[in-house]
Amino acid sequence: MAFRTTRVFRKRSCLHRHLAIIRSKNSEAFNDKPLRIHSWKVMFFGTDDFSIGSLTKLKNELKSNQMISKLEIVTSKWHLNPVKLFGQKEGLVVHDWPIAQHALQGFDIGVVASFGHLIPKRVIEAFPLGMVNVHGSLLPRWRGAAPVNYAIMHGDTVTGVSIMRIRPHTFDKGEVLSRQEVSIHPNETALELRARLSEVGGKELISCMQRLPECLEDAHPQPEEGICYAPKLTPELGVIDFKKMTAKCIFDRFRALYGIIPIVTTWMDLKLILHEVSLNNETHSDHTTPNPSTKFTFGEGSVPGSEFGKVKMYAHKIQDVEPNREKLTLEAICMSCC
C-alpha cells in the first residue's frame, strides 16, 4: 500500500511541476487564477472515422482561438485515411507515424481518438500534461480496438464514451477523467453507433479540455470489476452457425459486423453471404437493402431447455456472379444458446 501511495504522490508532483512551467509561460492567460489556462497547444493522434468527431471539435476551438492555440495531427502513413484527409482539407500540419521526437516539442497535451498504435513512453512524456484518449465504451468494459462492435455483438443496451489518461505500455487502462452514457438502439448497427459516439466523444473531450488541468488531477482509477476486452475484428467472427447460435445472437452479430466484415454461412453445402437480417419481422436499420437472391425464414419452435426465435435473412451464393440468381426460400429453427 505504501508503494502505491508513493507512486500516486510522484505522479501528482510531476504534474504540478509541469503546470508550474506552463503557468510561467502563459501568465497572462491565467489572469492570476491558479490552474486555469485558456489556450492549449494540442497534438492529435487518430486514424479513422471515429477520430473525426473529436478532431472536428478541436478544429472549431482552434478557429475561435480561445481554448486551442495550436493543433497538429499524427496519423498512419500507410494510406489516405479520414484523419489525414481532414487535416489536408483544413490546412493542418499532418505528421506520419512514427513521429520524430523533435516534432513533439512546443505542445501541452496529446489527444488520442481511435489511433490504433501503442504509444511509447517517450511520446507520452514529451507532453507536459501527458496524453488523454477518447474511448468508445464505458471503461473498464470493452477495452481494446473494437469496443462498439463487441458491445452490440454481446447484446449490450447501454454503452458510452470514456475520456482517460494514457499510460505507457498498456491499452485502455489509464485513469478516467469523465464518462458519458449512451443508449444503444435495438436495431442499430455498429457503424451507426460509432457515428453517434464519435460526436458524443468530441463534446465530452471539449468539456474536459475546458476543465484542464483540474480534471487530470481528479481522474480516478478504473475499477477491477467488470473488465472485458474487445480485440481486433477477424473474419472468423462473420461465420454464422445455425446449430450454435440463437436468432438474437445472429441478429446482434450481423448488426455488429454489417459493412465491416462479410457475414457468411453454409447451408446444404452452399456458401452464402448475408445482406440483411431482421428479428421478429423488424428490420435492423433504415439502410437501403441490396436486391436479395436468397431468403431465409426461420420459423418459431420450442425445444426443452433451449432458446429459440425467428429471424429472417437475405443472401446470395458467394460463388454466383450472374445478376439474376436463383432465389431460394428456407425454413429452420434457431434453438441453441449463444
TrEMBL record:
Any one GO CC term of the record: mitochondrion
CDD domains in the cross-refs: FMT_core_Met-tRNA-FMT_N
Organism: Megalurothrips usitatus
EC code: 2.1.2.9
Cited InterPro entries: Formyl_transf_N, Formyl_transf_N_sf, Met-tRNA-FMT_N
GO molecular function, one term: methionyl-tRNA formyltransferase activity
Classification via PANTHER family: METHIONYL-TRNA FORMYLTRANSFERASE, METHIONYL-TRNA FORMYLTRANSFERASE, MITOCHONDRIAL
Domain of life: Eukaryota
UniProt-listed Gene3D superfamilies: 3.40.50.12230
One Pfam family of this chain: Formyl_trans_N
Domain Formyl transferase N-terminal: 106-206
Name assigned to this protein: methionyl-tRNA formyltransferase
